[in-house]
Amino acid sequence: MLRYLIRRLGQALLVVAGVVMLTFVVMRLVPGDPAVAFAGPKATPEQLAAARERFGLDDPLWVQLWNYVRDLVTGDWGTSLHTRQPVRDDLLLAFPASLELVGAALLLAIVAGIPVGVLAARYKTKFPDFGVRVASMLAVSVPVFWLALALQTVFASNLGWFPVAGEYDSSLDTTSPLTLWTNITVVDALITGNWPILTSTLRHLVLPTLVVAAYPTGVIAQMTRAMLIEEAGQDHARLERALGFGETSILTRFALRPALGPVLSLIALVFAYSIVNGFLVEAVFNWPGLGRYAASAISSLDTPAIAGVTLLVALVYVLANLVVDLLQGLIDPRVRPQ
Amino acid sequence: MIEVRDLQVRYGTRVVARVPELDVGAGECVAIVGESGSGKSTTLLSLLGLTEGADVSGHVSVCGVEVLQASPQQLRRIRGARVALVLQSPQAALSPTTRLGTLMRRALELHGITGPRGGGPETGGPETGGSAGSRKERSWKGRASKGGLERVMVEAVEAVMLDPEILRRYPHEISGGQAQRFAIALAIALGAEVILADEPTSALDVTVQAEVVGVLHGLREERGLALLIVSHDLALVSTIADRVLVMKDGEVVESGPAADVLTRPSHPYTRELLEALP
Amino acid sequence: MTPPGTPPGTPPGTPPEASLSEAGPSEAPLRRTLPKITDRFAATGAVLIVVVAAAALLAPWLAPYPEDAVDPVNALLAPGAEHWFGTDQAGRDVLTRVLYGGRTSLFIAVSVLAVSAAVGVTLGLVAGYAGGWVRDVIMRVTDVFLAFPALLLSLMLAMVLQPSVTTVIVAIAVTWWPWYARLSASVAASVATRPYVDAARCLGVPAPVIIVRHVLPNSITPVLVQISLDAGGVILTAAALSYLGLGAQEPTAEWGLMVDQGQTLFTTNWWVVTFPGLAILVTAFAFNVLGEGLRNALDPRRVVR
């Protein structure tokens, strides 16, 4: 187990190193001089030179790469040209908000997707199955930004059931200010007992969560269905049938667990995908997460900020894959490394 | 225990098995032989109503239940509890993520078995757990006789000469012979009266084959179980079966007492099969 | 159905639709019709795609108005007899723009899939056939690309390059090829061990010839299935990039761009946003349904690897 863990960690590190290099290369390709962007269009030659000096833009490329890696490792992710804050601090504020949204969406997707997949597998090729297949296919085919706009227009602007945008009612910051612990608003509000902000955040969460959850719910339902049908066609299902177990009980008591392995790895992949997909939703609902941060960084050609977002998301992706590989051994004893 | 008349199994318009007559009484062992694709496995599965997607006609009575007319609930009640199935590929027939003991306990609970038979009231009667009342009663019983359930399981496993420790294992952690003996232990634990075995030894080593055959033979002698074995292995059949049916392309070409069929085959196909023996 | 970030082959091949439900004789006739229903699901996708493709290709003849006929007097007309889908803020006919938008979307999808399949399959075949360190290097590189969610890397690239349709194609293709590389490498690796390949090698046939003659034809089916599954994802990603202003620019008709430009009008003039969005949904849906059907038909047993 330990050797497997070490090998898997080594692989992950290699990927991270590649990601850092690739990010660095792409950032060097960005048009426009970061020194100009930092010092402003009216900067004097001296100010420009100082800026170039500060970012080490005159050093040879490999020195820049080396410095970049060294800084990243020591926790210096650069300074945003746009907010003029350390990128790391910006990310520590924005990422938890994205996590909150995607976490809520995935929770919904798992709670809804797996039972729906079981239902479809149980009534395979009958009406419930057909309904689930069409619905899940629609859910993975819908453009998120459009769904976000549609829900926002109908349920927020027109019907007024939910707030239009934002993470919580900002006037609450003065009446019941929130103490930050994790930077995840829901969690912080919960542990500090800040009920006004908690309820406000939950109300703001509903619509964006539904939109972000559409894709994961669809793929989880499809995957669960497919894996269950596959399992129910295996030899062991025949024995279970011969032992007198009914179809529902074969699916939920014997087939679901081996089927959950692939579903779990799907969830990790979908998690990373949903964070980026959430960018579009954050833009529509003005959610203060990574997406909004990335959007403003892109429009101002803020390379350190964009590099920071990219690295963070790639890290999350690598980590999610790692966790899943290790978790899979717990669910399915066959893949448990000896 | 098994009574079959004019059984016909069709997939669409293709007839895959036709059996005019097949009877297996308590303590008897009947074998169906033939090469793969001869319809012998289909015949076996149709006795439990497990032929998926097939049209089955005729008269099939197993343990007094008219299989072809039975409701799904009735079928589920005889499956396992009265008629056990032993499949060819030993490990694939066991759910990979379920410990053997868990599978056995679930099966016992499903059929409402909570303790050893004989002493106390026989609870082997089918219990579907439909009403809230009966479910409550069952869970109470289950708790009261936790040790009883455990004892049934250990005794069944020991009856097939397995270490009870095996109940804590997963299917991939045991050998093929152990898996096959565990499948038989399931039948014992559930108190099955009939065992249907589909190529029970063909995936096993020769020495392990002998063990499994020994266990099956013992069950029949000591507990009076009815055995219906499907096999292409004439050597196995000659050691255990009382009567033999020879099937080819879905038709029964010859049947009769094992001694007669195997020593004085009347059908050319049977002769062919026998000549293929080493 | 595989937008960026999902591995090829998810969700996995649905087993053939032979029924395993409770076997009651009365259900038999119904069960025989089931494969037909499954086919019908995929056939619906195929028909939808033919309709979408025909609408896009024939846009110049089908469209009731010229592509960018600006008519400020008739801006923001609600759908009616003159303008079935209404008009936008510049008075352009929304139906016309949706039809022409299909050309852009399909062009992007076809280009992306062709480029990334060409690059990915070439690298994958080489990796799978050669094995050893060659395979290791190529696979580690694809791992790195796979660690970037496609939309994010596309965002970065779209920023580096000037916003345009070509940019969208390049940006998405860069993130898409690794999937084909990984898939074809694993298939090619198993093909490379087959006897006829060994035989060719023993006869001294050069490796490139073996790859093209023997490995490629025998590894291409899963890739083709994957391509059909991916088309929907490409269309969604392209629309998202255009929605963010990083893709097609005015006056090109593009669905994502149309949603972007109309989004402030959603409450008052729903048709400006609704129809282009529906067009994206229907097209992606059609490809996803067809892709799933093809996979079930051609390759029912393939599960995520």
Characterize the structure shown.
- The complex is a heterotrimer of chains A (338), B (278) and C (305).
- With 338 residues, chain A is an all-alpha fold.
- Chain A has helices at 2-29, 34-39, 45-55, 61-73, 87-122, 127-141, 144-158, 172-175, 185-191, 195-232, 235-242, 247-285, 290-299, 303-331.
- Chain A has two domains: 32-76, no CATH class; 87-335, MetI-like (MetI-like fold, Orthogonal Bundle).
- Chain A has 14 helices and no strands.
- Chain A is globular.
- In chain A, 51% of the residues are buried.
- With 278 residues, chain B is of the alpha/beta class.
- Chain B has a single domain, classed as Rossmann fold, CATH 3.40.50.300.
- Chain B has ten helices and ten strands.
- In chain B, strand 9 (243-248) and strand 10 (251-257) form a beta hairpin.
- In chain B, helix 3 packs parallel to helix 6, helix 5 (146-159) crosses helix 6 and helix 6 runs parallel beside helix 7 (206-223).
- Chain B starts with a strand and ends with a helix.
- Chain C contains eleven helices and no strands.
- Chain C has a single domain (79-298), classed as MetI-like (MetI-like fold, Orthogonal Bundle), CATH 1.10.3720.10.
- In chain C, helix 4 packs antiparallel against helix 9 and helix 9 packs parallel to helix 10.
- Chain C is 67% helix and 0% strand.
- Residues 1-37 and 300-305 of chain C have low confidence and may be disordered.
Uncertain spans of chain C, ≥5 residues at pLDDT below 50? Answer: 1-37, 300-305
Give the fraction of residues assigned to helices of chain B: 25-40%
The CATH class of chain C turns out to be Mainly Alpha
Rough outline of chain C: elongated
Keywords (chain B): ATP-binding, Cell membrane, Membrane, Nucleotide-binding, Transport
Region (Disordered) (chain B): 112-144
Main location (chain B): membrane
Organism (chain B): Nonomuraea glycinis
